[in-house]
Amino acid sequence: MPKIVEVKLPPSELEQEGVLRKRLLKQLRCEEKDLKSFRVIRRSVDARGRQPLFLLRIEAYINETYQAEPALLDQLKVVEESPEVIIVGAGPAGMFAALELIECGLKPIILERGKDVRARRKDLRAIQQFGEVNPHSNYCFGEGGAGTYSDGKLYTRSHKRGNIEKALRLFVEHGATSDILVDAHPHIGSNKLPNIVANIRETIIQYGGEVRFENHVTDFIMEDGAMKGVVVNEQEELRAKAVILATGHSARDIFYLLDQRGIHIEAKPFALGVRIEHPQPLIDKIQYGKPERDRNLPASSYRLACQVKNRGVFSFCMCPGGLVVPAATAPGELVVNGMSMSRRDSPYANSGTVVSVEVEDLAPFAKQGVFAGLAFQEAVEKKFFQYGTGGQQAPALRLPDFVHRKVSANLPGSSYIPGLYAAPVHDLLPKSIYGRLQEGVQIFGRKMKGYYTEEATVIGTESRTSSPIKIPRSRETYMHEQTSGLFPCGEGAGYAGGIISAAMDGQNVAQAVARFYQ
Description:
Layout: E1 3-9, H1 17-28, E2 35-46, E3 53-62, E4 84-88, H2 92-103, E5 107-112, H3 120-130, H4 145-148, H5 164-173, H6 193-206, E6 210-213, E7 217-223, E8 226-232, E9 236-239, E10 243-245, H7 252-260, E11 266-267, E12 270-279, H8 280-288, E13 305-308, E14 311-319, E15 322-326, E16 336-340, E17 348-357, H9 372-387, E18 394-398, H10 399-403, E19 420-422, H11 425-428, H12 431-447, E20 457-462, E21 469-470, E22 486-488, H13 499-517
Parallel strand pairs: 4-5, 4-10, 5-6, 10-22, 18-19
Antiparallel strand pairs: 1-3, 2-3, 7-8, 8-9, 11-21, 12-17, 12-20, 13-14, 14-17, 15-16, 18-20
Protein backbone atom coordinates (compact mmCIF):
# COMPACT_ATOMS: atom_id res chain seq x y z
CA MET A 1 0.00 0.00 0.00
CA PRO A 2 1.31 3.50 -0.77
CA LYS A 3 2.08 5.86 2.08
CA ILE A 4 0.66 9.38 2.24
CA VAL A 5 3.03 12.09 3.46
CA GLU A 6 2.89 15.87 3.48
CA VAL A 7 5.83 18.05 2.54
CA LYS A 8 6.29 21.82 2.71
CA LEU A 9 8.47 23.54 0.12
CA PRO A 10 9.39 27.17 -0.51
CA PRO A 11 8.43 28.28 -4.04
CA SER A 12 12.06 28.35 -5.17
CA GLU A 13 12.37 24.59 -4.57
CA LEU A 14 9.08 23.52 -6.12
CA GLU A 15 10.57 22.35 -9.42
CA GLN A 16 13.63 20.67 -7.89
CA GLU A 17 12.67 17.01 -7.84
CA GLY A 18 15.94 16.07 -6.15
CA VAL A 19 15.13 18.28 -3.16
CA LEU A 20 11.63 16.85 -2.90
CA ARG A 21 12.92 13.29 -3.13
CA LYS A 22 15.43 13.90 -0.31
CA ARG A 23 12.70 15.30 1.93
CA LEU A 24 10.49 12.36 1.14
CA LEU A 25 13.20 9.83 1.99
CA LYS A 26 13.84 11.60 5.29
CA GLN A 27 10.15 11.60 6.24
CA LEU A 28 9.62 8.02 5.11
CA ARG A 29 12.84 6.81 6.73
CA CYS A 30 13.55 4.55 3.82
CA GLU A 31 16.47 3.86 1.50
CA GLU A 32 16.79 5.48 -1.93
CA LYS A 33 16.52 2.11 -3.67
CA ASP A 34 13.24 1.29 -1.91
CA LEU A 35 11.33 4.40 -3.05
CA LYS A 36 10.16 3.12 -6.42
CA SER A 37 7.90 6.06 -7.33
CA PHE A 38 5.83 8.88 -5.92
CA ARG A 39 3.23 11.34 -7.13
CA VAL A 40 1.78 14.58 -5.86
CA ILE A 41 -1.93 14.14 -5.20
CA ARG A 42 -2.66 17.59 -3.73
CA ARG A 43 -0.94 20.96 -4.05
CA SER A 44 -1.87 24.21 -2.34
CA VAL A 45 -0.25 27.45 -1.21
CA ASP A 46 -0.06 28.50 2.43
CA ALA A 47 0.55 32.25 2.59
CA ARG A 48 -0.22 32.72 6.28
CA GLY A 49 3.37 32.76 7.49
CA ARG A 50 6.29 35.10 6.86
CA GLN A 51 7.06 33.22 3.65
CA PRO A 52 4.58 31.54 1.29
CA LEU A 53 4.97 27.76 1.16
CA PHE A 54 3.68 25.03 -1.10
CA LEU A 55 1.91 22.25 0.77
CA LEU A 56 2.28 18.96 -1.08
CA ARG A 57 0.42 15.77 -0.25
CA ILE A 58 2.35 12.91 -1.77
CA GLU A 59 1.56 9.28 -2.44
CA ALA A 60 4.81 7.34 -2.05
CA TYR A 61 5.36 3.79 -3.31
CA ILE A 62 7.91 1.77 -1.38
CA ASN A 63 8.96 -1.47 -3.05
CA GLU A 64 6.02 -1.17 -5.44
CA THR A 65 5.14 1.02 -8.43
CA TYR A 66 2.13 3.17 -9.19
CA GLN A 67 -0.41 1.67 -11.55
CA ALA A 68 -2.52 4.25 -13.37
CA GLU A 69 -6.26 3.65 -13.58
CA PRO A 70 -7.76 2.77 -16.99
CA ALA A 71 -8.95 5.72 -19.06
CA LEU A 72 -12.59 6.65 -18.51
CA LEU A 73 -13.18 7.01 -22.24
CA ASP A 74 -12.30 3.34 -22.71
CA GLN A 75 -15.51 2.50 -20.87
CA LEU A 76 -17.77 4.20 -23.41
CA LYS A 77 -19.83 2.21 -25.88
CA VAL A 78 -21.31 3.07 -29.27
CA VAL A 79 -24.92 4.21 -28.83
CA GLU A 80 -25.93 5.19 -32.37
CA GLU A 81 -28.88 2.75 -32.36
CA SER A 82 -29.79 3.19 -28.69
CA PRO A 83 -32.82 4.98 -27.21
CA GLU A 84 -32.52 8.76 -27.54
CA VAL A 85 -32.41 11.42 -24.85
CA ILE A 86 -32.78 15.12 -25.70
CA ILE A 87 -30.42 17.52 -23.92
CA VAL A 88 -31.15 21.23 -24.19
CA GLY A 89 -27.92 23.17 -23.76
CA ALA A 90 -24.25 22.41 -24.49
CA GLY A 91 -22.74 23.83 -21.32
CA PRO A 92 -20.88 21.65 -18.81
CA ALA A 93 -24.12 20.18 -17.42
CA GLY A 94 -25.36 19.19 -20.88
CA MET A 95 -22.03 17.89 -22.20
CA PHE A 96 -21.19 15.84 -19.13
CA ALA A 97 -24.74 14.49 -19.07
CA ALA A 98 -24.16 13.37 -22.66
CA LEU A 99 -20.91 11.56 -21.78
CA GLU A 100 -22.63 9.83 -18.86
CA LEU A 101 -25.59 8.80 -21.02
CA ILE A 102 -23.22 7.19 -23.49
CA GLU A 103 -21.59 5.27 -20.66
CA CYS A 104 -25.09 4.14 -19.63
CA GLY A 105 -25.89 2.98 -23.18
CA LEU A 106 -28.21 5.81 -24.23
CA LYS A 107 -27.94 8.16 -27.21
CA PRO A 108 -27.72 11.88 -26.35
CA ILE A 109 -28.97 14.53 -28.76
CA ILE A 110 -27.66 17.93 -27.63
CA LEU A 111 -29.53 20.99 -28.89
CA GLU A 112 -27.55 24.23 -28.52
CA ARG A 113 -29.07 27.61 -29.44
CA GLY A 114 -25.62 29.10 -29.99
CA LYS A 115 -22.73 28.33 -32.30
CA ASP A 116 -19.82 25.93 -32.02
CA VAL A 117 -16.95 27.09 -29.87
CA ARG A 118 -14.84 28.48 -32.74
CA ALA A 119 -17.60 30.26 -34.66
CA ARG A 120 -18.67 31.78 -31.36
CA ARG A 121 -15.42 33.78 -31.21
CA LYS A 122 -16.59 36.17 -33.94
CA ASP A 123 -19.64 37.10 -31.90
CA LEU A 124 -17.51 37.69 -28.80
CA ARG A 125 -15.27 39.97 -30.85
CA ALA A 126 -18.35 41.88 -32.01
CA ILE A 127 -19.37 42.49 -28.38
CA GLN A 128 -15.89 43.56 -27.35
CA GLN A 129 -15.10 45.83 -30.29
CA PHE A 130 -18.43 47.07 -31.60
CA GLY A 131 -20.89 46.58 -28.73
CA GLU A 132 -23.02 44.23 -30.86
CA VAL A 133 -24.81 41.52 -28.84
CA ASN A 134 -26.03 38.38 -30.61
CA PRO A 135 -28.82 37.02 -28.34
CA HIS A 136 -27.97 33.43 -29.29
CA SER A 137 -24.16 33.59 -29.36
CA ASN A 138 -22.31 35.50 -26.63
CA TYR A 139 -20.37 34.94 -23.41
CA CYS A 140 -23.27 32.92 -21.96
CA PHE A 141 -24.70 31.08 -24.98
CA GLY A 142 -22.85 28.73 -27.31
CA GLU A 143 -20.86 25.52 -27.12
CA GLY A 144 -19.39 25.05 -23.66
CA GLY A 145 -21.79 27.52 -22.06
CA ALA A 146 -20.80 30.47 -19.89
CA GLY A 147 -17.72 28.70 -18.49
CA THR A 148 -15.85 28.37 -21.79
CA TYR A 149 -15.04 32.05 -22.20
CA SER A 150 -15.33 33.12 -18.59
CA ASP A 151 -12.32 31.70 -16.83
CA GLY A 152 -12.61 27.94 -16.47
CA LYS A 153 -12.28 27.76 -12.68
CA LEU A 154 -12.90 24.20 -11.54
CA TYR A 155 -12.99 24.72 -7.78
CA THR A 156 -16.14 23.61 -6.02
CA ARG A 157 -17.21 23.07 -2.43
CA SER A 158 -19.96 20.66 -3.55
CA HIS A 159 -17.99 17.54 -2.59
CA LYS A 160 -21.09 15.57 -1.62
CA ARG A 161 -22.95 16.19 -4.87
CA GLY A 162 -21.06 13.85 -7.14
CA ASN A 163 -17.79 12.43 -8.38
CA ILE A 164 -15.41 15.40 -8.63
CA GLU A 165 -12.44 13.23 -9.59
CA LYS A 166 -14.34 11.66 -12.49
CA ALA A 167 -15.31 15.08 -13.86
CA LEU A 168 -11.72 16.33 -13.58
CA ARG A 169 -10.32 13.18 -15.19
CA LEU A 170 -12.68 13.60 -18.13
CA PHE A 171 -11.35 17.12 -18.62
CA VAL A 172 -7.79 15.75 -18.59
CA GLU A 173 -8.65 12.98 -21.06
CA HIS A 174 -9.96 15.68 -23.38
CA GLY A 175 -6.82 17.82 -23.24
CA ALA A 176 -6.60 19.63 -19.90
CA THR A 177 -3.31 19.53 -18.02
CA SER A 178 -3.11 16.91 -15.27
CA ASP A 179 -2.38 19.75 -12.82
CA ILE A 180 -6.12 20.12 -12.35
CA LEU A 181 -6.16 16.73 -10.61
CA VAL A 182 -3.71 18.06 -8.02
CA ASP A 183 -4.24 21.79 -7.47
CA ALA A 184 -6.43 22.83 -4.56
CA HIS A 185 -7.98 25.49 -6.83
CA PRO A 186 -7.83 23.93 -10.31
CA HIS A 187 -8.14 26.16 -13.34
CA ILE A 188 -7.96 25.56 -17.09
CA GLY A 189 -8.17 29.01 -18.68
CA SER A 190 -10.35 30.50 -21.38
CA ASN A 191 -7.61 30.09 -24.01
CA LYS A 192 -7.49 26.30 -23.53
CA LEU A 193 -11.12 25.47 -22.80
CA PRO A 194 -12.35 25.92 -26.41
CA ASN A 195 -10.17 23.04 -27.67
CA ILE A 196 -11.19 20.86 -24.72
CA VAL A 197 -14.87 21.58 -25.30
CA ALA A 198 -14.49 20.76 -29.01
CA ASN A 199 -12.78 17.48 -28.06
CA ILE A 200 -15.70 16.56 -25.78
CA ARG A 201 -18.09 17.21 -28.67
CA GLU A 202 -16.03 14.92 -30.93
CA THR A 203 -16.18 12.16 -28.30
CA ILE A 204 -19.96 12.46 -28.11
CA ILE A 205 -20.24 12.22 -31.89
CA GLN A 206 -17.66 9.42 -32.15
CA TYR A 207 -19.73 7.19 -29.89
CA GLY A 208 -23.00 7.84 -31.70
CA GLY A 209 -24.42 10.94 -30.02
CA GLU A 210 -25.45 14.13 -31.81
CA VAL A 211 -24.60 17.78 -31.17
CA ARG A 212 -26.67 20.32 -33.10
CA PHE A 213 -25.82 24.03 -33.11
CA GLU A 214 -28.14 26.97 -33.79
CA ASN A 215 -30.98 24.72 -32.62
CA HIS A 216 -33.05 27.02 -30.41
CA VAL A 217 -35.79 25.26 -28.45
CA THR A 218 -38.91 27.36 -28.96
CA ASP A 219 -41.58 25.06 -27.50
CA PHE A 220 -42.11 21.88 -25.54
CA ILE A 221 -44.20 18.94 -26.70
CA MET A 222 -46.57 18.08 -23.86
CA GLU A 223 -49.01 15.15 -23.76
CA ASP A 224 -51.17 14.41 -20.72
CA GLY A 225 -48.95 16.61 -18.55
CA ALA A 226 -45.77 14.76 -19.54
CA MET A 227 -42.77 16.05 -21.52
CA LYS A 228 -42.55 14.21 -24.83
CA GLY A 229 -40.08 16.34 -26.77
CA VAL A 230 -39.28 19.81 -28.06
CA VAL A 231 -39.82 22.11 -31.01
CA VAL A 232 -36.66 23.56 -32.55
CA ASN A 233 -36.51 26.92 -34.32
CA GLU A 234 -40.34 27.01 -34.37
CA GLN A 235 -40.40 24.26 -37.00
CA GLU A 236 -38.83 20.87 -36.28
CA GLU A 237 -40.31 18.48 -33.73
CA LEU A 238 -37.99 16.13 -31.85
CA ARG A 239 -39.42 13.49 -29.54
CA ALA A 240 -37.86 11.45 -26.74
CA LYS A 241 -38.94 9.78 -23.54
CA ALA A 242 -36.77 12.21 -21.53
CA VAL A 243 -35.65 15.82 -21.94
CA ILE A 244 -32.72 17.11 -19.88
CA LEU A 245 -33.06 20.87 -19.52
CA ALA A 246 -29.55 22.30 -19.03
CA THR A 247 -29.90 25.81 -20.42
CA GLY A 248 -27.85 27.87 -17.93
CA HIS A 249 -28.77 30.83 -15.75
CA SER A 250 -29.42 33.33 -18.55
CA ALA A 251 -31.91 31.52 -20.81
CA ARG A 252 -34.79 33.73 -19.70
CA ASP A 253 -37.03 32.73 -22.59
CA ILE A 254 -36.97 29.11 -21.40
CA PHE A 255 -38.24 30.14 -17.96
CA TYR A 256 -41.11 32.07 -19.55
CA LEU A 257 -41.85 29.11 -21.84
CA LEU A 258 -42.02 26.71 -18.91
CA ASP A 259 -44.52 28.98 -17.20
CA GLN A 260 -46.62 29.32 -20.37
CA ARG A 261 -46.76 25.55 -20.65
CA GLY A 262 -48.01 25.23 -17.06
CA ILE A 263 -44.77 23.69 -15.75
CA HIS A 264 -44.18 24.75 -12.15
CA ILE A 265 -41.14 26.93 -11.46
CA GLU A 266 -40.13 28.87 -8.34
CA ALA A 267 -38.34 32.10 -7.46
CA LYS A 268 -35.01 31.65 -5.69
CA PRO A 269 -32.39 33.92 -4.09
CA PHE A 270 -29.48 35.21 -6.16
CA ALA A 271 -26.96 38.05 -5.86
CA LEU A 272 -26.23 41.32 -7.66
CA GLY A 273 -23.57 44.01 -7.45
CA VAL A 274 -20.44 45.14 -9.24
CA ARG A 275 -17.07 43.82 -10.39
CA ILE A 276 -14.03 45.31 -8.67
CA GLU A 277 -10.66 45.35 -10.42
CA HIS A 278 -7.24 45.82 -8.74
CA PRO A 279 -3.70 45.69 -10.10
CA GLN A 280 -2.57 42.08 -9.72
CA PRO A 281 0.85 43.05 -8.22
CA LEU A 282 -1.02 44.86 -5.44
CA ILE A 283 -3.07 41.74 -4.59
CA ASP A 284 0.11 39.63 -4.73
CA LYS A 285 1.88 42.00 -2.33
CA ILE A 286 -1.07 41.95 0.09
CA GLN A 287 -1.53 38.18 0.02
CA TYR A 288 2.08 37.00 -0.15
CA GLY A 289 3.64 39.76 1.95
CA LYS A 290 6.48 40.27 -0.54
CA PRO A 291 7.25 43.18 -2.91
CA GLU A 292 7.33 40.75 -5.86
CA ARG A 293 5.76 37.34 -6.45
CA ASP A 294 8.09 34.37 -6.89
CA ARG A 295 7.84 33.01 -10.43
CA ASN A 296 6.57 29.65 -9.14
CA LEU A 297 3.74 31.19 -7.15
CA PRO A 298 0.36 31.58 -8.87
CA ALA A 299 -1.27 34.97 -9.23
CA SER A 300 -2.84 35.42 -5.81
CA SER A 301 -6.56 35.53 -5.15
CA TYR A 302 -8.85 36.40 -2.28
CA ARG A 303 -12.23 35.50 -0.86
CA LEU A 304 -14.07 38.05 1.26
CA ALA A 305 -17.47 38.01 2.92
CA CYS A 306 -19.41 39.86 5.59
CA GLN A 307 -22.97 40.56 6.72
CA VAL A 308 -24.51 44.00 6.25
CA LYS A 309 -28.09 44.61 7.37
CA ASN A 310 -28.95 40.90 7.39
CA ARG A 311 -27.67 40.27 3.88
CA GLY A 312 -24.46 38.68 2.70
CA VAL A 313 -21.91 40.83 0.88
CA PHE A 314 -19.20 38.70 -0.73
CA SER A 315 -16.60 38.35 -3.44
CA PHE A 316 -17.66 36.07 -6.29
CA CYS A 317 -15.86 34.43 -9.23
CA MET A 318 -12.49 35.98 -8.35
CA CYS A 319 -10.20 36.07 -11.41
CA PRO A 320 -6.51 36.55 -10.58
CA GLY A 321 -4.47 37.74 -13.55
CA GLY A 322 -7.77 38.11 -15.36
CA LEU A 323 -9.94 40.24 -17.59
CA VAL A 324 -13.32 41.91 -17.15
CA VAL A 325 -15.61 41.03 -20.07
CA PRO A 326 -19.06 42.10 -21.36
CA ALA A 327 -21.59 39.34 -20.65
CA ALA A 328 -24.95 40.72 -21.86
CA THR A 329 -27.22 38.24 -23.63
CA ALA A 330 -29.47 40.73 -25.42
CA PRO A 331 -29.20 44.22 -26.90
CA GLY A 332 -29.95 47.01 -24.44
CA GLU A 333 -28.30 45.32 -21.43
CA LEU A 334 -25.01 45.98 -19.69
CA VAL A 335 -23.57 43.03 -17.75
CA VAL A 336 -19.95 42.34 -16.78
CA ASN A 337 -18.17 39.14 -15.79
CA GLY A 338 -14.59 37.98 -15.28
CA MET A 339 -12.27 35.48 -16.97
CA SER A 340 -8.62 34.40 -16.93
CA MET A 341 -6.31 32.74 -19.42
CA SER A 342 -4.40 29.63 -18.34
CA ARG A 343 -1.26 31.58 -17.39
CA ARG A 344 -3.25 34.17 -15.44
CA ASP A 345 -0.74 36.74 -16.59
CA SER A 346 -2.95 39.82 -17.00
CA PRO A 347 -1.70 42.77 -14.90
CA TYR A 348 -5.16 42.97 -13.30
CA ALA A 349 -7.18 40.97 -10.78
CA ASN A 350 -10.96 41.22 -10.67
CA SER A 351 -13.81 39.82 -8.63
CA GLY A 352 -17.55 40.13 -8.53
CA THR A 353 -18.55 41.91 -5.33
CA VAL A 354 -22.20 41.28 -4.75
CA VAL A 355 -25.11 41.42 -2.31
CA SER A 356 -27.50 38.54 -1.61
CA VAL A 357 -30.99 39.21 -2.95
CA GLU A 358 -33.74 37.30 -1.17
CA VAL A 359 -37.24 36.82 -2.58
CA GLU A 360 -38.65 39.26 0.02
CA ASP A 361 -36.35 42.00 -1.34
CA LEU A 362 -38.28 42.03 -4.62
CA ALA A 363 -41.48 43.71 -3.39
CA PRO A 364 -41.35 46.48 -6.07
CA PHE A 365 -41.56 43.74 -8.71
CA ALA A 366 -44.16 41.60 -6.91
CA LYS A 367 -46.65 41.94 -9.75
CA GLN A 368 -44.21 39.91 -11.88
CA GLY A 369 -44.83 36.92 -9.62
CA VAL A 370 -42.25 34.17 -9.99
CA PHE A 371 -40.37 36.38 -12.47
CA ALA A 372 -39.74 39.20 -9.97
CA GLY A 373 -36.02 38.35 -9.79
CA LEU A 374 -35.68 38.35 -13.57
CA ALA A 375 -37.46 41.70 -13.75
CA PHE A 376 -35.15 43.11 -11.07
CA GLN A 377 -32.06 41.89 -12.93
CA GLU A 378 -33.27 43.30 -16.24
CA ALA A 379 -34.18 46.67 -14.73
CA VAL A 380 -30.67 47.13 -13.34
CA GLU A 381 -28.95 45.94 -16.54
CA LYS A 382 -31.05 48.26 -18.72
CA LYS A 383 -30.49 51.22 -16.41
CA PHE A 384 -26.73 50.81 -16.67
CA PHE A 385 -26.95 50.46 -20.46
CA GLN A 386 -29.26 53.43 -20.95
CA TYR A 387 -27.01 55.73 -18.95
CA GLY A 388 -24.26 55.19 -21.53
CA THR A 389 -23.90 55.92 -25.22
CA GLY A 390 -25.52 52.79 -26.61
CA GLY A 391 -22.48 50.51 -26.54
CA GLN A 392 -20.88 48.14 -24.06
CA GLN A 393 -18.66 50.77 -22.41
CA ALA A 394 -19.20 50.31 -18.68
CA PRO A 395 -19.84 52.89 -15.94
CA ALA A 396 -17.05 52.86 -13.35
CA LEU A 397 -15.59 54.66 -10.33
CA ARG A 398 -12.49 54.50 -8.21
CA LEU A 399 -13.34 52.52 -5.08
CA PRO A 400 -13.13 55.42 -2.54
CA ASP A 401 -15.22 57.60 -4.85
CA PHE A 402 -17.82 54.84 -5.02
CA VAL A 403 -18.01 54.81 -1.22
CA HIS A 404 -18.21 58.62 -0.97
CA ARG A 405 -20.73 58.95 -3.82
CA LYS A 406 -18.40 61.01 -6.03
CA VAL A 407 -17.86 60.77 -9.77
CA SER A 408 -14.15 60.11 -10.32
CA ALA A 409 -12.12 62.76 -12.14
CA ASN A 410 -10.28 59.93 -13.95
CA LEU A 411 -10.05 56.17 -13.88
CA PRO A 412 -7.15 53.70 -13.55
CA GLY A 413 -6.17 51.44 -16.42
CA SER A 414 -8.43 48.43 -16.95
CA SER A 415 -8.58 45.08 -18.73
CA TYR A 416 -12.13 45.81 -19.96
CA ILE A 417 -11.74 46.09 -23.74
CA PRO A 418 -14.96 48.02 -24.59
CA GLY A 419 -13.76 50.74 -22.22
CA LEU A 420 -14.86 52.45 -19.01
CA TYR A 421 -16.23 55.89 -18.30
CA ALA A 422 -16.69 57.68 -15.00
CA ALA A 423 -20.34 57.63 -13.95
CA PRO A 424 -22.41 57.67 -10.73
CA VAL A 425 -22.47 53.90 -10.21
CA HIS A 426 -23.84 54.57 -6.73
CA ASP A 427 -26.99 56.09 -8.24
CA LEU A 428 -27.40 53.45 -10.95
CA LEU A 429 -27.53 50.59 -8.43
CA PRO A 430 -30.67 49.95 -6.36
CA LYS A 431 -30.36 51.72 -3.01
CA SER A 432 -30.47 48.48 -1.02
CA ILE A 433 -27.61 47.03 -3.09
CA TYR A 434 -25.47 50.17 -3.03
CA GLY A 435 -25.89 50.78 0.71
CA ARG A 436 -24.69 47.29 1.57
CA LEU A 437 -21.82 47.42 -0.92
CA GLN A 438 -20.79 50.82 0.42
CA GLU A 439 -20.39 49.38 3.90
CA GLY A 440 -19.16 45.96 2.78
CA VAL A 441 -16.13 47.16 0.79
CA GLN A 442 -14.99 49.23 3.77
CA ILE A 443 -15.20 46.11 5.95
CA PHE A 444 -13.20 44.24 3.29
CA GLY A 445 -10.59 47.00 3.45
CA ARG A 446 -10.18 46.39 7.16
CA LYS A 447 -9.99 42.62 6.69
CA MET A 448 -7.49 42.84 3.82
CA LYS A 449 -5.11 45.77 4.27
CA GLY A 450 -4.57 47.48 0.93
CA TYR A 451 -7.81 46.33 -0.69
CA TYR A 452 -9.50 49.71 -0.18
CA THR A 453 -7.46 51.87 -2.52
CA GLU A 454 -7.63 54.52 -5.24
CA GLU A 455 -6.11 51.91 -7.56
CA ALA A 456 -9.25 49.77 -7.40
CA THR A 457 -12.02 50.27 -9.94
CA VAL A 458 -15.71 49.53 -9.38
CA ILE A 459 -17.39 48.44 -12.65
CA GLY A 460 -21.12 47.87 -13.11
CA THR A 461 -22.99 45.69 -13.21
CA GLU A 462 -22.43 42.10 -12.05
CA SER A 463 -25.90 40.61 -12.21
CA ARG A 464 -25.64 37.03 -13.55
CA THR A 465 -24.25 35.34 -10.46
CA SER A 466 -26.88 32.59 -10.54
CA SER A 467 -30.37 31.91 -11.76
CA PRO A 468 -33.22 33.80 -10.03
CA ILE A 469 -35.45 30.84 -10.95
CA LYS A 470 -35.47 27.27 -9.70
CA ILE A 471 -37.04 24.39 -11.61
CA PRO A 472 -38.05 21.97 -8.83
CA ARG A 473 -37.27 18.28 -9.11
CA SER A 474 -37.45 15.14 -6.98
CA ARG A 475 -34.38 14.37 -4.88
CA GLU A 476 -34.75 10.69 -5.71
CA THR A 477 -35.60 10.72 -9.43
CA TYR A 478 -34.08 14.11 -10.46
CA MET A 479 -37.28 14.54 -12.51
CA HIS A 480 -39.65 17.49 -12.28
CA GLU A 481 -42.10 16.67 -9.54
CA GLN A 482 -45.18 17.31 -11.68
CA THR A 483 -43.94 16.81 -15.25
CA SER A 484 -42.88 13.31 -16.16
CA GLY A 485 -39.96 13.13 -18.60
CA LEU A 486 -38.55 16.56 -17.72
CA PHE A 487 -35.16 16.52 -15.96
CA PRO A 488 -34.06 20.01 -14.81
CA CYS A 489 -30.27 20.17 -14.66
CA GLY A 490 -27.36 22.44 -13.83
CA GLU A 491 -27.04 26.10 -13.01
CA GLY A 492 -30.11 27.33 -14.85
CA ALA A 493 -32.35 24.96 -12.93
CA GLY A 494 -30.84 26.07 -9.63
CA TYR A 495 -28.73 22.99 -8.86
CA ALA A 496 -25.17 24.10 -9.60
CA GLY A 497 -22.87 27.09 -9.23
CA GLY A 498 -19.90 26.58 -11.53
CA ILE A 499 -18.32 24.30 -14.12
CA ILE A 500 -17.61 21.28 -11.92
CA SER A 501 -20.82 21.38 -9.92
CA ALA A 502 -22.74 21.68 -13.21
CA ALA A 503 -20.78 18.80 -14.74
CA MET A 504 -21.46 16.59 -11.70
CA ASP A 505 -25.15 17.50 -11.79
CA GLY A 506 -25.21 16.51 -15.45
CA GLN A 507 -23.72 13.14 -14.56
CA ASN A 508 -26.21 12.60 -11.74
CA VAL A 509 -29.17 13.52 -13.93
CA ALA A 510 -27.96 11.23 -16.74
CA GLN A 511 -27.80 8.31 -14.30
CA ALA A 512 -31.34 9.12 -13.19
CA VAL A 513 -32.50 9.19 -16.83
CA ALA A 514 -30.90 5.79 -17.36
CA ARG A 515 -32.92 4.43 -14.42
CA PHE A 516 -36.05 6.07 -15.91
CA TYR A 517 -35.44 4.21 -19.20
CA GLN A 518 -35.03 0.81 -17.55
